Amino acid sequence: MTDAYLALEGERIVEARARAPGTANGELVFTTAYTGYEESLTDPSYEEQILTFSYPLIGNYGVREERFESDRVQPNAVVARELTDDVAEWLEGEGVPAVDHLDTRDIVTEIRDEGAMKCGIAAGPDATEADALEQLHQCKHMSEHTDIVAQVSVSEEIVYNEGGDGATVALVDCGAKGSIIDSLVERDAEVHVLPYDATEDDIESVDPDLLFISNGPGDPENFERAGEVVDTYVGEVPIAGICLGQQVVANALGGETEKMEFGHRGVNQPVRDLRTDQVVMTTQNHGYTVADPGDDLDVTQINVNDDTPEGLENDELGIITRQYHPEANPGPHDSLSFFDDVLELAEE
Amino acid sequence: MTDDERPTILLIGSGPIQIGQAAEFDYSGAQACRALQEEGARVVLVNSNPATIMTDPEMADKVYLEPINTEAIAEIIRKEQPDGVIAGLGGQTGLNVTAELAEEGVLDEHDVEVMGTPLDTIYATEDREKFRDRMHKVNEPVPQSVTIESMDEVEEAVESVGGLPVIMRTTYTLGGAGSGVIDDMDELKEATRKGLRLSRNNEVMITESIDGWVELEYEVMRDAADSTIIICNMENIDPMGIHTGESIVVTPSQVIPDKGHQEMRDAALKVIRELGIEGGCNIQFAWHDDGTPGGEYRVVEVNPRVSRSSALASKATGYPIARVTAKVAMGKRLHEIENEITGETTAAFEPAIDYIVTKVPRWPKDKFRDVEFELGPAMKSTGEAMAIGRTFPESMLKALRSSEYDPAVDWTEVDDATLESEYLERPTPDRTYAIFEAFGRGYSVEEIAGLTDIQEWYLERYQEVAEAADAAAEGDFYTAGQAGFTDQEITAIAGGEFNDTHRSWLPADVEVDDGDEGTEAAADGGAATESTIPDSVTVETVEAETTDRDFKLVDTCAGEFEATTPYYYSTRDPVSGIDRDELMVDRDVESVVVVGGGPIRIGQGVEFDYCSVHAVRALREMGIDAHVVNNNPETVSTDYDTSDGLFFEPITAEEVADVIEATNADGVMVQFGGQTSVDIGHPLEQEIERRGLDCEIMGTSVDAMDLAEDRDRFNRLMDDLGIAQAEGGSATSEEEALELAQEIGYPVLVRPSYVLGGRAMDVVYNDEDLKTYIEEAVRVSPDKPILVDDFLADAVELDVDAVADGENVLIGGVMEHVETAGVHSGDSACMIPPRSQEIKEVMPRIREVTEQIATALDTVGLLNVQLAVRDGTVYVLEANPRSSRTVPFISKSTGVPIAKIAAQVMAGVTLEELDIQEQIPDQVSIKEVVLPFDRLPGSDPRLGPEMKSTGEVMGTAGSFGKAYQKAQMAVGKPIPLAGTALVDLPVLGYEEHFETVDLDDFEDTDAVVEAIRNGEIDLVLSRNREILEACVEETVTYFSTIESGEAGLEAINSADEPLNVQAIGERPTDQREWGR
Predict the structure, then answer these.
(1) Same structural domain, A119 and A198
(2) Which of A301, B232, B582, B1011 suits a disulfide with A311, CB 3.0-4.6 Å?
(3) How is domain B8-115 classified at the CATH fold level?
(4) Which residues of B touch A266 (CB under 8 A)?
């Protein structure tokens, strides 16, 4: 039944069954969410990664486009204990290699103990161990993907809810999930999704009430352009950020980011608000984190498990950022009020 | 903290095991006791069920084995002056009595705070009208429904919820008693009439039927800072309309998209906040795919407390709901409570799991042949088994093996039309097996989905199992192993020999030699599959092809954090290259595997979990690592901190041997888990031998246990010892049976050889009865003989529990049955110490017989002997060198922990070294049983030789009468002290208290039934089945034997004596030896 191979760092070979053929490489990561595979697989933050589902049974309720977060499958390859035919066919159609029938808990605990690692994959009737190894050798570190933003950002401005009654938002697209835009639009905002390399002119022509730095894949250091935008408008326009957006804002304001051992990926990450003591469950998908928020930003929320910063704020400068994904999809809706809060900033 | 500073918390248990309320509250109560003590509380516990771990003296600061009613608890409150009471951990029983205590003003009077969930919330969830109002307030959709208080409103109500079919529900009842989906107006009216009477507040509700929707439950936890989380959700495979306790349930949900799941999660959080619940609770939803991305849902019900589902959720995820609930009630925040499983995270998170859990209910179908086991909104199952696997087929087949259920259906005699109408469309305990059978016959997923309303995702996987069985028959063993079959099952499917106990499902044409089972899955007519496999398929050939079992951790976090708690399940995940060993057990130290008792069922209750837990504790105290194999999610033995290694596995020889191999155990104990564990003794011994494992079956030998169950060998042994037995023998044909019966003289007791809890046992009075019995109840043949014994009418029956070490014998206690011969020992009330003069006179002989049998069986460990005394002669009825259901009762009434002593002895300590004194209690303790007739319409409520009770209570007092009265209170059937009594048994004395009537006062039985229905009769003494059935339906107290009638009269005469509640340990005993 073996017709697929994974080559892990250290040239270790793992045998599996091909469900969608092809070869690929990427950083091997895992998510612990058991629902929301359609949303996860279309989340641009998984660009250049190979996504392992720790939940063994994936694809149980089919594939429906209304549940997608972007217009394509984003990870370079997919690993699960058991993929349904529905999801396997979808991935094959998208040209994304997928494998199952392997002990994915071993993979997950290996990543936990050794960190997110390089991985090559070869799947299909002709796949060989050598193919997988070759892919492994071609695999780059996430930080080496310096152009990654170009792969996930829109190429030109798109406006949603034009003429909407609410705030005007300039969203710098670093690989934004559709639900972020939806959440803003649901609150009547007019959302201008701008390419990552939007100029000051482009932004000024939008004349935004709120500058929004989206989520995105990989190392925030590779998102210099978005950082410059923050630097330019801080204090003038309120700023919001999600996930990589938070990291970009922190870096731009004198903070520092660092790579995590294996990141946070799942829909059960507990976040405690330091002001209310309340804990909520959040969706997360990040491999880097803010190590030092710098002098301008206060840590207002932390991760209950490892104390990493989950919320940064500055009332005077009008900044609110979140490391997690308040827009959910997949995951809990506990912190949807974030969008109300940032739009309130925009109204001020 | 000094004792004065410690807050005193009263924890109310749930009482006896009954349908709808099994061992889960022993687990939650035991966990809560520990958590409360950790938080500095002084815990006072009350429960009437002696078979529980929570009522062990060391579990709480004070333990009261007293009735759970306002009278007894009010007295405990006066004595103990608690600061607070936690009601949400004792099931519906605990909630109800707390509500009553509040209503009667007892809580206010003594300044007792209701901790955790407020009473208002309880009312708001129990009263469906109030519940609907609260849901409307927060804009959550509930099924259309109307509450009515009289029969006149029925038709209008039906119209207002959209017409028939509707669901009729009573409020304030346990496990949905008296509820049902009804599509006929006359039937609805009859059900409503009964429902109005059963309901505590004379209301029933008529609800829109959302039958066929997916039923889900969400387990929610909230603290006082409003941190609110979902521990897990659970999806019923059986659609809406079948009580979740009757459904096969999986965790997490499989067919709900994230959007729908999150919408229900939001609703669950909103609802728990609206209701102000603090601690654990459970919310039920109905969901269906209406074409939108998230689907459509309704909020069905909220349980504002820890429940059976929360026990399941705790075991399924590793999140200890009862523990966290108790700590939240003490004011802790979720993020301040440590997650003991990982040691590095907290209780403020939502568990992530990387396996699928399947729960299968266990029904008492084998015990109630008269009862229709159609599944619906009311519970009929007594317990459940849970299994963990990495795929649904693996998880489900493990759960089916764990449930120890055999459908008594010969599929080869079921035609397609019957299969569809009786087994697929109609939900019964056999439906799972029928689905496999249907796939075997070539039915499609769509066809079966149409008949069953089960989601196709599940059916596709049932089909996969059926196909894997076909593949195994053709020689593809790997696939069958992946699908979850054991090597032994695969060997049987491939035509080889099956050398194990419990099976998941095997195709109808697979022949398995059972020996001890009364039912046969394999039929004579089925043509064997044309197979290319030679006859010589052995388990070795199968093993060579299948994947070895690998043990994986239940870690609450899907591998994200390293876990430190040794809680395991096995899987046959493919071996893919990196093989990580997750076993943390120490293979180099002395260790023992304790085999547990499996699901709760009649004849196999929580008492065997009590015994297993005691064995584990004894071993750990001796410095020996103790590992548990069990599959019952409700129990203390499957709590992750009970043992050094918890293996959540089916109890089969193969799977237990895998645990032995993985842990490198030196010994295995099969004496403590009741019949379940004893059954694997023989095959396990063979399996250990076959694999060449260095592991000993500890204590009494398997051969001695076999001898005790083998009638002929046992007879010879008793003859040799000169111990009297009821005259009898075994017959292999009808002619032989008739001959034997005539020789002994009627009435005779008849039963199949190898009995489980008195299955199919009966008393027959003449040739005709005997012929009918053979025809209807059993098939007699040379390899399935029946036993015919002298009935020993009028003898007094006794139970003795003892521990032997091969040298000496310690008698735990001698119990006299209240009911005489003819009533199964498990159903008879019994007392300790015995009171009849007849027994006192032969006590030395009782001791002698017990000692002789112990020695003759080379008993090392527990021994239960059932005796009968008539005319000064002591007869032995049965001897079982293993744990018995009276072990905890004995231990609680005498203070001598015999299960623990037995484990110590089995591990090599002598009784002499232990130097334990026998104790004879000064007061009288009565064990009384709980019978499930009210839950099983159509069942015969007369006590007989077949066991029917689900659980037990204990009542203790200075006099027999008072103790009996307390026991009846604890059972929930208080004896009325005045009124009208129908006395249809030869018992004199009721006329002094009651206006008595007898059958002559009525035209016919119907008239009696009518009078009972009209509430004209308060107490009944009768053996007339129809009359008793009416009593059951109308909840009129009755006695169905002369002896219980007499005992009842004594209770009435003792009614004026004080209740005299006392904590265990405070009751006086004599350090005397039994029979010396």
Answers:
(1) no
(2) A301
(3) Rossmann fold (3.40.50)
(4) 352, 558, 560
